[in-house]
Amino acid sequence: MIMSDQILSHAVFLILVLFCCTEHTHGKLIMQGSAGFVKGFRTLTSTKKHTYGQAFHDEILQFKNSNGTMTSFSVTFFFAIVPEHKRKGSHGMAFVISPSRGITNASADQYLGIFTKANNGNMSNHIFAVELDINKDDEFGDIDDNHVGININGMRSVLSAPAGYYDQEGHFRSLSLISGNLLRLTILYSHKDAQINVTLSSPEEGYYPKKPLLSLKQDLSPYFSEKMYAGFSASTGSVGAMHYMWVWFINGYITVPNLDLGIPKFLSYPITKTKVALIVLGTSLALALFAALVATGLSFFFYKRHMKVMEVLEEWEIECGPHRFSHKELFKATNGFKQLLGKGGFGQVFKGTLPGSNAKIAVKRVSHGSSQGMREFLAEIATIGRHRHPNLVRLLGYCRYNEELYLVYDFMPNGSLDRYLHGGSSDQEELSWSQRFKIIKDVASALAYLHHEWMQVVVHRDIKPANVLIDDKMNASLGDFGLAKLYDQGHEAQTSRVAGTFGYMAPELMRTGRPTTGTDVYAFGVFMLEVSCGRKLFEPRAEPEEIVLADWAINRWEKGDIIEAASERIRREYDKGQLEVVLKLGVLCSHQAEEVRPDMATVVKILEGVSELPDNLLDVVRTEKLGRWYEMYGKVLDVEVTMESGGNLTVTEPLTSVGR
To answer: Class for domain 2-270, per CATH?
Structure first.
């Protein structure tokens, strides 16, 4: 009884499938090329490479009325693509409407058996297609190797989207065209709205998506003849794929069939005799070599373990200066790199204690995933390895072990400045004005040393509160030289890579990508405003004139009360002369025109009270004329103004850092 029920069920299913393929289309599919049947399933391609197959409806269909107007039509078909390799196939398939039944002399591979290189894109083709593309062809502007596209007269899609559908909540769900699972594609064309909607879905979901994958406003009448043929085409390239066609419907009106059919399981990609032979041969060779590989593997294992503990000193390391630690020392000092302090621009930072001295250290480990890791590692060693300044984070040494890179610094117990400025913790101690002023002067001193007092010019390129560290006595030190650039005094910085932090990057750096001491001065100006005002650079929820900190400071200055740019708490305890100087100097240093900014040596003199700002500085800020700035500024400060001190080493040619 059970057997008879199963036979009856299969018989009903077969009749239904045949009905879908013939009754609704009033005919049958005529197969050409590599199209055929495999184990009862219709396929458009076989295992043969660089071929195409077609299956076209044997009867011509009416797409225009006698008066030449387009009719609406709808197409629904079920298909599956099984690739030769699990995650890659080529090239795909398409539903096609063509003037002829079958397309002769078409090309395989990327042309899907529809076009050739010669006629691709010709208006005379009169071909409409919806492609299911599983190979990314840059020549046609393909978006990826798994997409659906609407094509008219050529392989470059008018509109395309990654394969998938929108669920009942409107969320996009991806589908793989080469999953081997049954998929459904529906094409609806409304002649009234001149609208094409294409929907891809999975029959397993049991519902038809409300939102189409593709929706194109396009009148098809210029591209269609009165009567045309409909069918399917698919092709293979260097990688094979089986393109299965199951059932399909085409109607001269808009409809989406409501189907509840059993979902078939399609066959996997056939293994050719050649592949079977290769598998047998490969297995035999693997077994024959196994014993030798075991012995070789054991030897290699002991060799690698020995090499891991060897630390070869390379030529570049001899010139770097700071002490080289062994990995064993750092591993022990950090207790196995377990106490994470935070994450820097290119890696993690761990706390540790050096054995013997009990000195607290911070160990920066450059991340494996950083493609720029070695470059930034060398930049930090070369930049701060030989520097000795009280306001620069001291580099104690470094380590390179098993392709991992480490930098060892003095530990700064109070962490980075941004924690004090924007920490957000209720128990976080707020900085007093005297502490803020001291921090600004410390960072200015460090930058003046880097720009003017060392044997080479160092452009830091990433000045911001997160890169300023605070010790136990609230002294500030500038750190994180991962983006720094060196060049000899009197020469120019060389790079073509824009780097830094948004908000702190000077306008000319965004345009040219060339860092100068002037771009550092700009970042320091923004830094001064942030520290002295006690607020972030951008406050999106503030009043319009208060959103951008620099604009807000200039706005208050023009109204005669620049002190109002600072927060209320800072205004309660500030030193009026100091705060006013810092705010005005911050605006000056962060000026849009590089020529208007002072150099860091001048900034330090002003902060120390050695020099004073001119009374009409607001007029200076409003101008971008280099000559006017030098004329006014030079007289007040009584300093020799040169292109280097006023213009901060203008860069005109890109190259790499001199001597590095």
So the answer is: mainly beta
